[in-house]
Amino acid sequence: MKKYNPKYLDDEEKSIVESIETVNLQDVSKPTKREQTEIKNAAKDYLKKETKMNIRIDPYELNRIKEEAAREGLKYQTFIKSILHKYISGQLVEKSKLIG
Asked: Whole-model pTM?
């Protein structure tokens, strides 16, 4: 795992990286036209379709969100999307519940 810092990878990701690194690209053949079409169709089906959303937000709150996003190294829209995803998937936990 030369290019990746294993500190940031879980066991499954490490296994995937190691598997990829053992592949000899000289042994890999180009997919047929039919296979390429099947791959493209599967990718289209798999890609997420997103909907744009507009919300009204207090300027003070937006500034706080932008500050937090900057601390996380994210764009503020990505940061908001991440928070919403964590909330609806049950991954967002209050700090007070983590301590106690």
From this structure: 0.49
